[in-house]
């Protein structure tokens, strides 16, 4: 039986529902006929358009993760059910901004997660799964003392898995790690059926252009140079629809109390990621090949010059059958098309730093 048939008429609750990954998750849940409750910031306006048009399939709750009353109010309709699935994707998710707005990052990502968990306990909700969206950033960079604790693939690359030690190197990463641990604490203490996911970099339509993929594409659409920070760091880039399928597999088929790490399973330097994007866009005649230029200054505090991180997603695959399905060039082509067709989302508004 298709795993997703279990979603029909199922109560689902998504925080960060109008954000990048959240809105793609909402699309998928609506498509599968789930009863979707979207929790979005009271001030959300532009982003809300990401989930408009779903009609009665979607109930929108406005609030703020930092305000426990608003969280509790939004969760209350779930009290009538015993098979709800919760997806906690709401966060201050930008690494650079976590240095500019550290208190807001901790409040939203740590206190916000706590508010959600404690509200489930206070309302005595009988839920089927709580998926906490953590991040590969929690692993940070293997430093010298830690290197021996990591596993390697045949090419001497660090292969990250659920067993790898954590080493967060930014306010964002630390806040997400704290949220992860709180989630596990509530599993152990109250028996909540929580699962924590550590997802690697997602890219795709609707992503804010301040992340690397949008930074490359919007510059290429606008001018003949693409200026970036650290070109040598490597990331495991996963198309957002695969990322969303991963969350669904975890919530529907994962084991409560456990952790799941996943991504595309290949990493790429930001220089080669930019080259591939520019190549795909030139082939589709969006631009003539722009020049790639590395900025002199370090991009942001905490970033390392050598990041060779790669994900092994064996556990998720073995337990739930998930594997990525969208090859890079296809995902990139769909992403470029979206930015090209939605200049209102970025034109004149991106600070390419
Ligand atoms: C999994 C994880 O994934 C994301 O975190 P991130 O990897 O920091 O994402 P990013 O797209 O900002 O950077 C990717 C890499 O690219 C380098 N880089 C160079 N030059 C520019 C540049 O000009 N802009 C940006 N943004 N990055 C640059 C930058 O130094 C880094 O090495 C978030 O979704 C986060 O929420 C999350 O959880």
From TrEMBL:
<dbReference type="Pfam" id="PF16363">
    <property type="entry name" value="GDP_Man_Dehyd"/>
</dbReference>
<feature type="domain" description="NAD(P)-binding">
    <location>
        <begin position="13"/>
        <end position="334"/>
    </location>
</feature>
<protein>
    <submittedName>
        <fullName>GDP-mannose 4,6-dehydratase</fullName>
    </submittedName>
</protein>
<dbReference type="InterPro" id="IPR016040">
    <property type="entry name" value="NAD(P)-bd_dom"/>
</dbReference>
<dbReference type="InterPro" id="IPR036291">
    <property type="entry name" value="NAD(P)-bd_dom_sf"/>
</dbReference>
